[in-house]
Design brief:
Blueprint: E1 8-16, E2 42-46, E3 60-64, E4 81-85, E5 91-99, E6 105-114, E7 118-122, E8 132-139, E9 144-150, H1 168-174, H2 180-183, H3 195-204, H4 208-214, E10 230-232, E11 235-237, E12 242-252, E13 255-262, E14 268-274, E15 284-289
Antiparallel strand pairs: 1-6, 2-4, 3-5, 5-6, 7-8, 8-9, 9-15, 10-11, 12-13, 13-14
């Protein structure tokens, strides 16, 4: 299965009720998605490219997010950008209506196709406890690249060197919290994602402003990160509120970078943790084909 790097195809752009633009003062409606639409991921719909032919006209916008042309899910707003959770697993339409000061309207319905080129399978690793992997395939002009990520937080058997939750349900959901020195040496092939690789995944999930939400979405094509918290000085902190995921990049001999997400937030950010802290692990490996 092959798909473009942005994983989205523009099916159609239809101006309804104003395609002839009989009123020369009617505004021009244009919108796009800065990142590729993926089912259940949040993304921005950006209509800032819309414009009026009337000097000094202040435009307003409203959206038909389910594309049924029966109603408008948002009220009129002067902000041309709206953040939505993409509703279509495969394809569908989203509508925009733009209004000028004189009340003239232009309507645009745009079709989108979302296709996820991924697969989930068992990972073969050095770990005593197996984990699943998710493979994302990307096509470029001169090569194919497969990015492989652990599909679950890495879970280890009990040890005084790291932290396991008591119940089997929590172990399965949150995995094991480990210090950086353990996280960096778990497997000969799979390794900690670098900060750059975590950034690539953040970009795939809508950028820093939305990736914190999208990385947690309970969708098969997402990493479905959880928020176990962290262990500092032997104490479990921020459990259920925050997730910290080690990167392979050290800051100095005592600290390393980690990706941080929050249960109620949309953002993802990089923070510095003391290497003795215990945080979550997702391993990765990459394949390159020419």
């Amino acid at each position: 299965m092959k798909t473009s790097a942005i994983l989205t195809l523009l099916l159609s752009a239809v101006l309804i009720a104003s395609c002839e633009r009989e009123d020369p003062t009617a505004p021009v409606a244009v919108f796009s998605t800065p990142t590729a639409p993926r089912y259940m991921f949040k993304l921005n719909l950006d209509a800032s490219g819309s414009f009026s032919t009337v000097e000094g006209d202040n435009l307003e916008y409203r959206w038909d997010l389910n594309g049924d042309h029966l109603g408008w899910e948002t009220d009129w707003n002067s902000n041309p950008v709206v953040t939505v959770q993409f509703p279509y697993e495969h394809n569908g339409y989203i509508g925009l209506q733009v209004r000028g000061n004189n009340g003239t309207l232009t309507e645009l319905y745009q079709g989108f196709y979302t296709y996820e080129d991924y697969r989930i399978q068992k990972a073969w690793s050095d770990l005593e406890i197996d984990f699943r992997r998710i493979d994302y395939d990307f096509s470029y002009p001169d090569h194919y690249r497969t990015r492989v990520w652990a599909y679950d937080n890495i879970q280890l058997k009990d040890s005084q060197l790291w932290y396991n939750f008591q119940s089997s349900e929590e172990r399965a959901e949150f995995g094991t919290l480990v210090p950086w020195s353990v996280a960096d040496t778990l497997d000969n092939d799979y390794r900690l994602p670098s900060r750059s690789e975590w950034q690539q995944m953040t970009d795939y999930c809508g950028g820093a402003g939305l990736a914190g939400f999208n990385l947690q979405v309970k969708a098969e094509h997402g990493l479905q990160l959880t928020c176990p918290g962290k262990v500092t000085d032997g104490q479990l902190l921020e459990h259920g509120e925050t997730g910290y995921y080690w990167t392979g990049d050290e800051v100095d001999e005592d600290s390393a970078w980690a990706l941080k997400i929050t249960a109620e937030g949309d953002e993802a950010e990089f923070v510095i943790l003391d290497k003795s802290s215990m945080a979550s692990v997702r391993l990765t490996i990459e394949f390159l084909y020419f």
